[in-house]
Amino acid sequence: MRPVWIIDDDKSIRWVIEKSLSREGIVFRSFAAAQDALDALEDSAPQAVISDIRMPGASGLEFMQQLKAKLPATPVIIMTAYSDLESAVAAFQGGAFEYLPKPFDVDHAVELIRRALDESVRKSPSEEIASNVPEILGSAPTMQEVFRAIGRLSQSHATVLITGESGTGKELVALALHRHSPRAAKSFIAINTAAIPKDLLESELFGHERGAFTGAATMRRGRFEQADGGTLFLDEIGDMPPELQTRLLRVLSDGQFYRVGGHTPITASVRVIAATHQDLDARVKEGLFREDLFHRLNVIRLRLPSLRERREDIPLLLKHFLAKSARELNVDAKRLSEPALAFLSQQEFPGNVRQLENLCHWITVMAPAQTVEVPDLPADMRGTATDKHAAPIDNNWRRALEREVTASLGRGEKEIFGGLNRSFEAALISKALEHTGGRRIEAATLLGIGRNTLTRKIQELGLASEG
User: pTM for the full model?
Assistant: First the structure.
């Protein structure tokens, strides 16, 4: 079997992957630049490739493009430190086998390389995907799965059902699915079925003929006609009235419908993407949603995670939305202090990403200084009870520490500072990891230290076995 090629300008990344592959008995060859790998293609070939996406000179995508032209069946794993949809989609569009966001788990990387080697033996082609849609960001594993799904659906016309809590970005994902589909050149039409009165919704969806009802002075094309050749996004589909569910089912079944008051069938080629924050399975069982329509819509289901499930993305999203608000208002972007960032990373945000974006707009307008501290945040978010009791809690903690120091001095112990400091750090890190369920990036953010510092401290304090 030919070697796995490792391409990354970061020597430490190459070293980690090299050591991991050596332990697994996998032959490899390393390159510090994509151009060096391109030169090597003249007289050799890899079995599989793991490459960074952005490097000085030629990029990982440019290398992959030239590799695919010569060896189309060679799997390529693209690594990137840039946590956005653009990187994921661009990688898949170029024919990437898989997308690996940095920092990554070494065991997971080796597993992907083994899968890529298996794939290369089978010589099955990689899937392709389209290009970028802005403002869908996330490095959390749950969001990476969403990015992958968008990529893998890029050449599909299949109906998609997007589920998730309110404010998680369902319309953004629907728009991304449209823009990365063969229908991208045609219209993307969105309608919130819960926001339109029941009596008007039928006309909104299917249009009406002149004189069909009082006030219908002219013929009007509905959303299905407007979306012909493109995509129709039906938001909050779970709230659609039963009689319209029946009409929608007929359209999805045969592609034809009638305008209100009309007698001539109209045919439209429309890809339907539906979304809901409700549990449609439960609504079907309760008789509130047609089971046959549910199965028509539920061809491919894509679930968006709540912000509580992707807390590690909160700092990234805060930075993005603060910059966006600043551009919209033509002002300098506000910055969050480390304590403010840690505080916000612990909040629940029941309104999810939409609530976070609104908060950033509030901060941009209302926060008094360029660097935003916890007291500068909205009062309802800070909670007056927490502020009221902060001092007594602090005093109790200090008194307990003072008693421990006094007892240690009384016992004649030495190197008290080092010992208590280790205990202090161990308590902080253990409780932070317990709070985040072992997620180190999130724990480091909450503690206000770097991920590498946290990893080093875990090793120094002997906490690795506990995590």
Answer: 0.57
